[in-house]
UniProtKB/TrEMBL annotation:
Family recorded in the similarity comment: Belongs to the NADH:flavin oxidoreductase/NADH oxidase family.
A family per Pfam: Oxidored_FMN
UniProt-listed PANTHER family: BINDING OXIDOREDUCTASE, PUTATIVE (AFU_ORTHOLOGUE AFUA_2G08260)-RELATED
Lineage: Eukaryota, Fungi, Dikarya, Basidiomycota, Agaricomycotina
InterPro entries in the record: Aldolase_TIM (IPR013785), NADH_flavin_oxidoreductase (IPR051799), OxRdtase_FMN_N (IPR001155)
Domain NADH:flavin oxidoreductase/NADH oxidase N-terminal residue range list: 19-372
Example of a GO MF term: oxidoreductase activity
The protein's name in its UniProt record: NADH:flavin oxidoreductase/NADH oxidase N-terminal domain-containing protein
Organism: Dioszegia hungarica
Chain segments annotated as transmembrane: 446-467
Keywords: Flavoprotein, FMN, Membrane, Oxidoreductase, Transmembrane, Transmembrane helix
């Protein structure tokens, strides 16, 4: 079997669903829209571009199950289980599949459902009054660094520490919100949901000893289930009970959440094996990319070296994953992070390092990456390489804000939580261009993009959105 034939081969999941090829456009913050709410016309245009690009699976950006707790001002939400909400997500699915080329199999469309937990800012998210705190398994505030600027930003984004949830009924209410979101996705025609248990959001917070030092056992869970997995278990069990067997149940975890959350490799491996043993997961995404900085690291030491994170990712790929049952007996494993060539994708699949390959940021620049490059027989292997592009002005901004330079060297002290998001913002602005019907611009400078996409077009979009709602 040739490289392209293996990558283009289909894969059956435990629930009987079939993914047409091994390439997955993974979830990213899309930066479109303001103040939460339902998907709109620009989301539809962005997803239409991905839909015609030859992907086997498309995973949406964050859809927050609680509109009061947004991770960013751009998050989509499930405001209710009404027909109006269902119709909005049904329209997004229709737009995604509206421009499929002839004889092209449709990608499976998966909605990522999430709760931001401690990371939800009451000020920048504007989803609740500024003095209303975020919620989580403990009372704390994300760490934005020790500089005066970092402290000012931290107090501005999170005026108060989070409120610790101690009531069983409140946890049960959160579980029900995830279940309701899954039901909305199924009624809207989506093929499944991905429960976001990574990047320091609520489920990752419940798992981490750093953000949940005294975990609360939840009612209705068998005593053999580790207490830190109670919340995830209840959500998966609820989604299973409320949806059809054919509806895909996926979860996302992040290697670096484990390392920076206080767990070693052995503990992390046992967590994965425990989740797989429940036989309630069809797809398991393991992320090893660099998005981790804005995640659980925000609550610990933002300057911790990445070597532990990289070692753990290597452990997952080289030891743990091949020991798990292969699909359809076990869940399909998606590996996401720095697999940026046809050669690497093929070798990862051939050695069963993974079953599916997740691609994030390059899909913002090349929305039809599978069709035009990876699966294109006219593109030789040595040219089927993507990623590795340089963001003009990005290093300077990262240094100023406390992130890392592209070379990996430590930057000056600043606001690490913000500095780490410099690349994230730039890719969001590329998605904003796609949503407006404009081609991505790989040569777009960071500061120019911040001005035009982050300010000018964002303000225009917000004003037009207000008039459309009137």
């Amino acid at each position: 079997m040739s490289k392209i034939e293996l990558i283009a081969s289909s894969l059956e999941l435990p629930n009987g669903a079939v993914i047409p090829n091994r390439l997955v456009k993974v979830a990213m913050e899309e930066g479109i829209g303001h103040g939460g709410g339902l998907p709109g016309r620009r989301h539809c245009e962005l997803y239409r571009r991905w839909g015609e690009g030859g992907w086997g699976m498309l995973i949406s950006g964050n859809v927050q199950v609680d509109p009061r707790h947004l991770a960013t001002p751009h998050d989509r939400t499930i405001p209710s289980t009404s027909q109006h909400t269902i119709s909005a997500y049904s329209a997004l699915r229709f737009a995604t599949l509206s421009s499929l080329p002839p004889d092209t199999k449709a990608p499976l469309l998966i909605m990522q459902i999430s709760h931001a937990g401690l990371q939800s800012s009451s000020t920048i998210g504007a989803s609740r009054l500024p003095w209303v705190p975020a919620i989580g398994p403990s009372s704390m505030r994300p760490n934005t660094g020790n500089s005066w600027a970092g402290k000012v930003v931290g107090r501005t984004l999170w005026p108060t520490k989070s409120r610790q949830i101690v009531d069983f009924a409140e946890w049960e209410g959160i579980v029900q919100k995830f279940v309701d979101a899954a039901v909305v996705a199924e009624k809207a025609g989506w093929e499944g949901v991905q429960v976001h248990s990574a990047h320091g959001y609520l489920l990752a917070e419940y798992l981490s000893p750093l953000t949940n030092p005294n975990p609360l056992p939840l009612p209705g869970v068998h005593w053999k289930i580790p207490v830190r997995l109670h919340l995830l278990f209840l959500i998966l069990r609820g989604v299973h009970a409320a949806t059809r067997r054919e509806f895909i149940k996926a979860i996302k975890i992040n290697c670096s959440d484990f390392v920076q959350g206080g767990l070693d490799e052995a503990q992390s491996a046992e967590i994965i094996k425990e989740i797989v043993s429940w036989r309630m997961v069809d797809v398991l995404e393991v992320s090893g990319g660099n998005y981790s900085n804005p995640g659980i690291v925000a609550f610990t030491d933002s300057q911790r070296p990445t070597s532990s994170r990289q070692a753990l990712f290597s452990h997952f790929t080289s030891a743990l994953l091949p020991s798990l049952p292969s699909p359809p007996e076990g869940p399909a494993i998606i590996l996401t992070g720095s697999i940026h060539s046809r050669e690497l994708i093929h070798s990862s699949l051939e050695t069963r390092t993974c079953d599916l390959v997740g691609i994030g940021r390059p899909s913002c620049i090349y929305p039809a990456l599978p069709r035009d490059v990876i699966l294109n027989i006219d593109v030789p292997d040595e040219e089927a390489v993507f990623g590795g592009y340089h963001i003009r002005g990005g290093d300077w901004v990262k240094q100023a804000l406390g992130g890392e330079k592209s070379s990996g060297k430590k930057a000056s002290k600043g606001i690490p939580l913000v500095g780490a998001g410099v690349s994230t913002f730039w890719h969001e602005w590329q998605m904003c261009r796609l949503g407006r019907g404009v081609e991505p611009d790989i040569n777009m400078s960071w500061l120019g993009a911040a001005l035009w996409e982050g300010v000018v077009f964002a303000v225009i979009g917000a004003v037009l959105g207000v008039f459309r709602r009137k």
